[in-house]
Amino acid sequence: MNTSIVSWLVLAISTISIFSDVAGASAPARCPRVDPRSLLLELRNSLVFDASESSKLVQWNRSADSWSGVTCEDELIVGLDLSNESISGGIDGSSSLFKLEFLRSLNLAFNDLYSSAIPSGLTNFSHLTHLNLSNAEFDGQSPAELSHLTKLRTLDLTHSRGNYPALLFPEEPFLRSLIGDLGELRELYLDGIDVSTEGSEWCDALSSSMPKLEVLSMSGCSLSGPIGASLMSLANLSVIQLDHNVLSTTVPRFLANFSSLKTLSLSDCGLQGEFPQEVFQVKTLQTLDLSSSRLLQGSLPIFPENSSLQTLVLSGSNISESLPDSIGNLRNLSRIELADCSFYGNIPSSLTNLSRLSYLDLSFNNFTGSIPSLSKSKNLTHIILYYNNLTGPIDSTAWESLLSLLILHLGFNLLEGNIPSSLFTHPSIQELQLSDNRFSGQLKGFFNAPSQMLNTLDLSNNNIGGELPTSIWELRGLNVLSLSSNNFSGSFHINLVQQLRNLGDLDLSYNHFSIDATNTASQATSFPDLQYLNLASC
Q: Which helix (DSSP H) or strand (DSSP E) does residue 103 occupy?
């Protein structure tokens, strides 16, 4: 055969192979053979599902050129994603699902398969590497045969629709029987499943059976403490999520030795004792959540400049003392929640360096001094600083530059001076709460370009005076308006308020208004959502 012809054939065959691989990886997949199509249609016809809620099964038919939720390779079905398909009625052992013997990935998450247990037929999928049954609402016990899926790399049995723990729990010892042969597992999600272990037995079971584990998520599993040292053998762990358990233990220092640790979440676990500062300083750590740990003590360390920390949540713990200036080194920080701790002192001016910050909550502490400018944090959506002892004016921040700001809570402080007019013309703010401070001045000239997004405006218990600008009644989206206990004066007819038809809470009490409320009772239908009205001492 001519050499050029041979070369052309090789090139053509290679090209066909490349396009075949690309098609196999795409979604929805093309399955050209008749038999796979017949199997899929047989499966579709055997399932009970709500067609109005379905986005995949409802599209399956014999003339279909693509099959949503199906992945094929070499004309074999290797992936099936039927999550969120409103499937009900259960899957029994005779289902045509189990004829798809080459499946490597199966996702049945968020369905209502409450009339059947997890089918033992799943163990027929000897090629399966990813199995997701989270919130599929299976009833009864999980089969121990799941441990025979020796190629599994991801297993998700999460139950998060109801209260922890889930009613789905197998015979003891569940954890050891489940993971006994899953030595290739990289990700394990058992959130909401009662694993029925005592003490640190769960640590021993995991470390002896899953040496390659990278993600461990067991929130609300009725785990007890302590966190055993055997966990250290899982050297590849990058995610540890153990929220809502009853560990009632100290936090071991060895957690700082996980060189790949990205997420450590131990919220509401009954943690106690001194939290090791070394954990704060893990270079790879991105998320740290120790919230709802009233018995946990400690202080923040000096943060290194190369920290990866993005989310820091300590609310409801007893982490205390002052915020270090080095918090400004956390250039990747986007969320910081330190509410209801025991912090005191000034809010460091270095906070202005956190340009990626989107959520800031320092409420219910003892911070003093002024609020540093936050103008560089263009992504801020929430600023929550109420119940502190903050002082001074609030005009150091160019509020109009924070175009994503939704919530500004500065109430119950000692703030003073005029309220910047830019707050009242802000295009995105939904809640503006400045009550119980020492703000003064007037609102004259404000609200010239009122935000239709504003639904809560609370200026109560300040020293604001003068007449109300009539443009305040153009804030049509207001649900809560509280101006009580100020020095507002002037007169207006209650008819003006009728423009705020969404009002549920109106408090104008303890001012110097002269309000004409004639026929107010007959006009009550103008406020269909009004639940609270206070015009006392006006």
A: none
In order of 35, 412, 490, the CA distances from 436 in angstroms are 72, 5, 22
For the chain, first and last CA: distance in Å? 104
pLDDT tens-digit series, residues 245-275: 999 999 999 999 999 999 999 999 999 999 9
Look up residue 260 and give its two tokens.
């790949």
Specify the DSSP element, H or E, that contains 36.
helix 34-46
Residue burial 194-207, b: 16+ Cβ < 10 Å; e: rest: bbbbeebbbbbbbb
Surface-to-core class of residue 528, CB atoms within 10 Å of its CB (0-12 exposed, 13-18 middle, 19+ buried): exposed
Q: For residues 86 and 110, is the Cβ–Cβ distance under 8 A?
A: no
Average pLDDT over residues 93-111: 91
Q: Go through the chain and tell me how many residues it has.
A: 538
Predicted confidence at residue 411, as pLDDT, reads: 98
- Show the CA angle centred on residue 216, arms to residues 304 and 279, nearest 5°: 20
CA separation for the pair 477, 454 (Å, rounded): 6
pTM for this predicted structure: 0.88
Reading the block at residue 250, the tokens are 């100290």
β-partners of residue 27 are none
Structure tokens, 112: 């209502």
Q: When comparing pLDDT for 14 and 521, which is higher? A: 521
pLDDT, tens digit, 9 for 90 and up, residues 326-351: 999 999 999 999 999 999 999 999 99
Q: Which helix (DSSP H) or strand (DSSP E) does residue 13 occupy?
A: helix 3-25
CA dihedral 235, 237, 243, 245 (to 10 degrees): -40
Instruction: Compute the Cα dihedral for 467, 473, 474, 477 and give only its sign.
Output: positive
**Closest C-alpha to 360, from 368, 369, 373:** 373
CA distance 286 to 266: 14
Is residue 120 very low, low, confident or very high in pLDDT (cuts 50, 70, 90)? confident
Lowest mean pLDDT among 88-92, 231-235, 380-384: 88-92
The residue behind tokens 């020293």 is: 463
CA dihedral 498→501→507→510, nearest 10 degrees, is -10
Strands 76-81 and 70-73: antiparallel
